C-alpha cells in the first residue's frame, strides 16, 4: 500500500514515462523559461503601455493587439513556477491549488493568444480585401464584444485542464509532481476519454483550425495586394513590406507551435494504441520540454512581429521611455494607417480593373 504521511498525495509507481528526466533538461529548460519570461514581460508591457498612453483604443486593430499583448503577458507570468518545477527535477513545491491554477492559466492564455491572432488576421483580411463592405462590422464596439467572447470561450476551454490536474507522489523518484489525474480502476475509461477529448481540443482549436484560418486570410490578402501591385507598380516596395510582415506573423506562429503540436499528437496516440511502448514515451518525454519552450517563445515574438516593425510605434516607445506626456497620437502605420491606405488603394485598383474590363467588353 502506498505511503501517505503528513497529507501527502497517494503514491504512484510508474512503469513507463520516467526516462524523460535528464540533468541537462533540469538545467537548460529553466534558463530558457527565464529568458522567455524576461523578454515576454518587457516586450508585451511596452506594447500595452504604448498603445494605452499614445495610440489609444480607437481602432479595431489596436484593440486586438492590446488584448493579444495582455494575453501574452499573463501567459508568461506562470513561467517562474514552471522554471522552478523543472529546476527541482520535476518536483512541484507549490501545492495542489497552484498546480491546478497554473495549468489552467497556461492553457487559458494559450487559447486567448491564438484566438486573438486569428481575430487580428480576419480583421486584416476584411480591412484590405473588403474595406467598404466591412466598415459597419469593423467598429470599436464589435471589437470589444469579440474580445469578451474570446476571453469567455478560452476560459471555458481551460476549465477541464484545471480539473484534471493535481499533485501526485511518484514513489519511483520520491518526488511530488504536478500532472494529470491518475485513474483508479473504476474511472480509468471515463478519465482516459476525458483526457483524449482535451487533447483533441488542444490540437484542433488550439492550433489546426486557427492556423488554417490565418493561412487562408493571408493568402487572400496576398492575392489582393499582388493584384494592386500589378496595376500600381509604384507601390511595389510598400506592398512587399506588408506582405513580409504578414509572412513573418504566419511563420512565427507555425514555427513556434508546430513542434509542440507534433509531439502532443504523438502523446495522444500513446493514449490510444501505444500505451505500453516505453521507447516512444521516452522520446516524447525528452522532447516535450523543449517544444514547450519553443511554443512559449511565441509570446515573445508577437510584440516584434505585430508592433515593433512600425516607425511610429518606435517613436512612441521612445516618448514612453523619456516619460513624454501623451497627446493626440497619429495612427499606428504598421497596423492601422498602412493597412488602411492599402485597403483603399486595393479597392480603388480592383474597381479600376472592373471598369477596364467593362470598357473592353463594350469596345
From TrEMBL:
Domain G-protein coupled receptors family 1 profile: 43-306
SUPFAM superfamilies cross-referenced by the UniProt entry: Family A G protein-coupled receptor-like
Pfam families in the record: 7tm_1
InterPro entries: ATII_AT1_rcpt, ATII_rcpt, CCR1-9-like, GPCR_Rhodpsn, GPCR_Rhodpsn_7TM
GO MF terms, alphabetically ordered: angiotensin type I receptor activity; angiotensin type II receptor activity; C-C chemokine binding; C-C chemokine receptor activity
Annotated TM spans: 31-54, 61-82, 102-120, 141-163, 193-221, 242-260, 287-309
Domain of life: Eukaryota
PROSITE patterns found in the cross-reference section: G_PROTEIN_RECEP_F1_1, G_PROTEIN_RECEP_F1_2
Signal peptide location: none
PANTHER family hit by this protein: CELL ADHESION MOLECULE, TYPE-1 ANGIOTENSIN II RECEPTOR A
Role: Receptor for angiotensin II, a vasoconstricting peptide, which acts as a key regulator of blood pressure and sodium retention by the kidney. The activated receptor in turn couples to G-alpha proteins G(q) and thus activates phospholipase C and increases the cytosolic Ca(2+) concentrations, which in turn triggers cellular responses such as stimulation of protein kinase C. Receptor for angiotensin II, a vasoconstricting peptide, which acts as a key regulator of blood pressure and sodium retention by the kidney. The activated receptor in turn couples to G-alpha proteins G(q) (GNAQ, GNA11, GNA14 or GNA15) and thus activates phospholipase C and increases the cytosolic Ca(2+) concentrations, which in turn triggers cellular responses such as stimulation of protein kinase C.
Protein name from the UniProt record: Type-1 angiotensin II receptor
Organism whose genome encodes this protein: Poecilia reticulata
